[in-house]
Amino acid sequence: MPVTSCRHIIFLTLLTFSVTTALPPIIKIGAIFTQEEKDSSTELAFKYAVYRINRDKTLLPKTTLVYDIQYVPKDDSFHASKKACQQVQEGVQAVFGPSDPLLGAHIHSICDALDIPHLESRLDLDSEYREFSINLHPAQTLLNNAFYDVIDFLNWTRVAIIYEEDYGLIKLRELVRSPGQREVEIHIRQADPESYRSVLKEVKTKEIHNLIVDTRPENMHHFLRGILQLQMNDYKYHYLFTSFDIETFDLEDFKYNFVNMTAFRMVDAEDVNVRRVLEDMQRFQPTGHSPLNKTSVIQAGPALMYDSVLVFAVGLQTLEQSHSLVPANVSCDAEMPWDGGLSLINYINSVELKGLSGPIEFKEGRRIQFKLDLLKLKQHSLVKVGEWSPATGVNISDRAAFFDSGSMNVTLVVITILETPYVMIKEGENTTSQKYEGFCIDLLREIANMVGFEYQIQLVPDGKYGVFDHETGEWNGIVRQLMDKKADLAVGSMTINYARESVIDFTKPFMNLGISILFKVPTDKESRFFTFLDPLAFEIWMLAFVAFVSVCLCLYAISRFSPYEWYNPKPWKGKDDPRLMVNTFSLSNSVWFITGTLLRQGAGLNPKATSTRIVGGIWWFFTLIIISSYTANLAAFLTVERMITPIENAEDLAGQTDISYGTLDSGSTMTFFRDSMIETYKKMWRFMENKKPSVFVPTYEEGIRRVLEGNYAFLMESTMLDYIVQRDCNLTQIGGLLDSKGYGIATPMGSPWRDKISLAILELQEKGEIQMLYDKWWKNPGDTCTRNEKGKESKANALGVDNIGGVFVVLLCGLAIAVIVAIFEFCYNSKKITKLERRVASAPHQSLCAEMLEELCFALRCRGSRQRPALKRQCSKCLPGTTYVPATFDLPPPVNNGLRSQDEKCFREAAWQFP
């Protein structure tokens, strides 16, 4: 073969090789570490990453990575810059590290000036865009969001932030400023190994149980020892560490004390691919050290360093498919940028992969895609309880882990108040947890079994639920005890309101209720003997009596004045003789006529004149209205039971002053009226506040007693009112609910038990357990009173003697009076006859007693002579042999009008004595 042909073949081969191979066979990269990081896990991870990429021929099959590592003092930026320039001059195409923030800023300035990619795995607090920088560490802004989501989930309201390095405050400043629905009280303290104990002691003195800890990993054992020395290692405390390396800490002394420790991690050691890489990494020991710790867990720094090398290799692979990479030939002296640096950094910035630290994605050199595992210390080890990512936020997979007591023997101090039927003392029991019974005790027992804790019940010293005193600026009662952390829970009929919620926490309400009015059942009006007089008022009776007398006199006067009411009963003596004219409506007859018409009876007298007929007609109309109205109202009074309550609602209560009303002292009901902006309730509060003696009562029992005494209304919560009303038929509820609220279990602010108990309450409500407990303590048939409730359609009761007995009394009195008058008339008539007999000389004389006896015998004789004894006796002496003529017939005039014999005169006088 000719020499020329061989040369052509060699040229074509080299040309083909240059076209297909865009990457040089050797690519040199530089790494700068501090002297403290020499032979550290971070350096070993870097070396292993280069080793793995060179071994894996699928990633860069025809390219080998060669690294150059330089060590510099930690605070010496001058030497660091010289080392970087030295690596650039030797042709490195990327620089990795260092992890120190100060040194990293200087190295980046050199790389940016020469267009050399700078890959970092450190926390960068500078938010400005850096063109030639690729940082795999998550931005602090996103990490602060993750921390805040956890704080919000744990419901922290008082937090202490303890940081060590100066930039720690700058790192967490966004966390301090994070807006939220609830304000978080944050205490910030800087500490180092020398001051850990004093700072922790201050936090303990302030009773802050939630801490965010940002310390150097190498000093963490000093901090943990301070926790043990101050005995801040129980379940009340919760520590949130900013470090991603909590798995590398020695937490053996904290596992069994149930202290809450939470942190994020970036490396999921449970992932199959990650575990395979870590196992291979553990076998890679070029210097006799392992990049993993004793627990075979890699730290976040080495993992990020490994991922940064992997990202660079993937960027080279992507660039190889479309561009060629010209080796860098730059120096710090010439300040000529590398032509291929811009293309390489763009390809690296577009890399998307999954490394040891999870999913990786960049935007303008900042990592925007990653996943953090939320770890929680449990009894045996740290467990994963959730995840966080920038896209989805926090996702808690095991909520019970934060409040799960497991098998721990935690005894909570539960504070309460004796109140029927919520908490009562059981007779015959002396143990602390068994001497109480009631609705809340049963509820507490169910919750304790579900959540998993023991409890010890104590009574609040002052016997009050808790109200804020504006004069002293302090709380009292249960609220004060919880604020002072003297109790873990408060169980009872404790109302959830805004003021209490601002200083303590409440669970979900286990019972809904409102304020209502307790009042004594109005007793039926005592039946009086003269109840029939009630339909008409006293004034009407007096006016009717005046009208009766007036009409009687008017009729009498008009009848005598009108000529048409006079008539001659003996027209044969002279038709128009005025001496013979008589008037039917004498005074007695007028009274009788008016009385008869009033009582709907005939009087036997009829007016003849028009004027007297008008008086009669008007009186008849008057009596028609009066009697009809009286009859209708009497039926309403006597046949329909009407319960008349002096008050019907809160407005009626506020509009009067005769009935006192009050609330429980230092309770939520008192606070409701005190702080209400409704005018009616403000008026009621002014009345209650100024009323002397005080209308506020220390206990419900005292309020019930005052209600039963009468003239007092007790404003109380509807659940307790319902319990009382069902057991005492003398009490009733007036009106509806004045507000709407709920009972909840109270805990100190930020207590870890609140959410767990809330979940237990919701579960009990869904199962109907709480309703069953309510029926047990409220509606026990053996303890409730039997009410004879009558609806609006109830039938009227039969009238008894108590209702209309007075009518019979009036009737008896009238009959008695009539008898007395008849006796009087009898005696008077007998005496008159006796006097008449004495004036007649020929008549036989009898004594008054004999005359009365004879008349009485005649009156009692059923059969016999129709002639009265006196008449018979006079006629036999005056006209012997003549026949008796009844007095009701007038005898015809005698023939001789001028002669009037003695016998005729005697006969006529005797005849007119006949009744």
How would you describe the overall organization of this protein?
Residues 1-22 form the signal peptide. This is Glutamate receptor ionotropic, kainate 2-like. It comes from Laodelphax striatellus. There is one protein chain. The protein is α/β, with parallel strands linked by helices. The chain folds into 5 domains: 26-133 and 302-362, Response regulator (Rossmann fold), CATH 3.40.50; 140-265 and 371-403, Rossmann fold; 411-514 and 742-779, D-Maltodextrin-Binding Protein, domain 2, CATH 3.40.190.10; 519-524 and 643-739, D-Maltodextrin-Binding Protein, domain 2 (3-Layer(aba) Sandwich), CATH 3.40.190; 531-639, Helix Hairpins (Orthogonal Bundle), CATH 1.10.287. It is built from 29 helices and 33 strands. Strands 7-6-8-9-10-14-15-16 form an 8-stranded mixed sheet, covered by helices on one side. Strands 2-1-3-4-5 form a 5-stranded parallel sheet, with helices on both faces. Strands 29-30-26-31 form a 4-stranded mixed sheet. A hairpin with a 3-residue loop joins strand 15 (382-389) and strand 16 (393-396). Helix 2 packs parallel to helix 11, helix 3 (77-89) runs parallel beside helix 4 (101-114) and helix 11 crosses helix 12. The termini are far apart. 34% of the residues are buried.
